[in-house]
Write a structure and sequence with these properties.
There is one protein chain. This protein has 339 residues and is of the alpha/beta class. It has a single domain, classed as Aldolase class I (TIM Barrel, Alpha-Beta Barrel), CATH 3.20.20. Helix content is 39%, strand content 15%. It is built from eleven helices and twelve strands. The strands form two sheets. Strands 1, 2, 3, 4, 5, 8, 9, 10, 11 and 12 form a ten-stranded mixed β-sheet that branches. A two-stranded antiparallel ribbon has the order 6-7. The longest helix has 18 residues. The model has no long low-confidence stretch (mean pLDDT 96). Bound molecules: ligand PBG. Ligand PBG binds next to helix 6.
């Protein structure tokens, strides 16, 4: 393949030729849209650091879910903001908890959506950590795992389609799988946040979910950003414990992990394009420093190209709309780029 016999630019000449040899494609089916559900009536609180994202009470949540489905997105991921937090995270596994109610409301009103429940304790703990804090200030792994399994089970009883543990305790996939199987929920898949880093890019989410740790940080359970072998090991462990899908989080600063885990496990893989990644593009676009649509589509394509099967992203609604544009133009007899 030498110049001048091979001239790569020949196949870049027109949009039709470029489309013909394009290797990676996005589709709304691979998107998961995160939703934040809050107690109360008629609440729609904008999250300041995440323009376009709201804390929604059940009535607004159902409307939003309908909107999401109408755009061709098939999956939502639920996070809950309870009215009371305590040191046992009792809101997480309360059958009348905010997520349990949201699961029932969405399954009843928008049954075509796959409802994924994020299983974690931080939003429900008064101290904001993802597990039970002992007197010495340490997060107790095995006690926390019991509560996580209880939470996953209560989501399943409420009718959730998939559970997604995001806490990073050791052994939680085994515990959740056995709790679900024991109660007849052997068909509920587990999407494990297997490879989740202690990242600074979660900042805006913690405003949305009202879940910042009140002391210390999450470095004793979330991973060190410097490690890649360990990220692969975490994914393999979770697969062996029974995870149906593994995950890399955040996405863009960790594309190497997406590539590596996909190529070494050949297992279904999700990537979480997190709140900070979203906020950066939104802020730059609001200042006129970046073309939002082009930047978002390039970022999502990169995540897919690296090897992700599924992308959890706050851009999902916009991206689904943008993906539908060429089809609408073609239907109207107009070519997107004129040739
Ligand atoms: C809960 C959880 C977090 C995110 C997803 N689940 C926050 C955290 O671990 O601190 C972050 C998502 C995002 O930033 O968009 N443990």
């Amino acid at each position: 393949m030498y110049y001048p016999q091979y001239r790569p630019r020949r196949m870049r000449k027109t949009d039709n030729l470029r489309a013909m040899i394009r290797e990676t494609h996005l589709h709304p089916h691979i998107f998961v849209y995160p939703l934040f559900v809050i107690h109360g009536e008629d609440v729609r609180n904008p999250v300041k650091s995440m323009p376009g994202v709201f804390q929604l009470s059940i009535n607004h949540l159902v409307e939003e879910a309908k909107d999401v489905a109408s755009l061709g997105i098939r999956n939502v991921l639920l996070f809950g903001i309870p009215d009371v937090k305590d040191e046992a995270a009792s809101g997480a596994y309360d059958p009348e908890g905010v997520v349990q109610m949201a699961i029932r409301a969405i399954k009843e009103n928008v049954p075509q959506l796959t409802v994924i429940g994020d299983v974690c304790l931080c939003e429900y703990m008064s101290h904001g950590h993802c597990g039970i804090v002992r007197e010495d200030g340490c997060v107790d792994n095995d006690l926390s795992v019991e509560l996580l399994a209880k939470t996953a089970l209560s989501y399943a009883e409420a009718g959730v389609d998939v559970v997604a543990p995001s806490d990073m305790m050791d052994g939680r996939i085994t515990a959740i799988r056995s709790a679900l199987d024991h109660e007849g929920h052997q068909d509920v898949p587990i999407f494990s946040y297997s490879t989740k880093y202690a990242s600074s890019f979660y900042g805006p989410f913690r405003e949305a979910a009202e879940s910042p740790p009140q002391f210390g940080d999450r470095k004793s359970y979330q991973m060190d950003p410097a490690n890649t072998d360990e990220g692969l090991r975490e994914a393999i462990m979770d697969i062996e414990e029974g995870a149906d899908m593994v995950m890399v989080k955040p996405a863009l600063p960790y594309l190497d992990l997406i590539y590596r885990i996909k190529s070494e496990t050949r297992f279904p893989l999700a990537a979480y394009n997190v709140s900070g990644e979203y906020a950066m593009i939104k802020a730059a676009a609001a200042n006129g420093w970046i073309d939002e649509k082009a930047a978002v589509m390039e970022a999502l394509l990169s995540i897919k190209r690296a090897g992700a099967d599924m992308i959890i992203t706050y851009h999902a609604k916009d991206a689904a709309r943008w993906l539908a544009e060429p089809m609408r133009m073609a239907a109207a007899g107009r070519h997107p780029e004129g040739r």
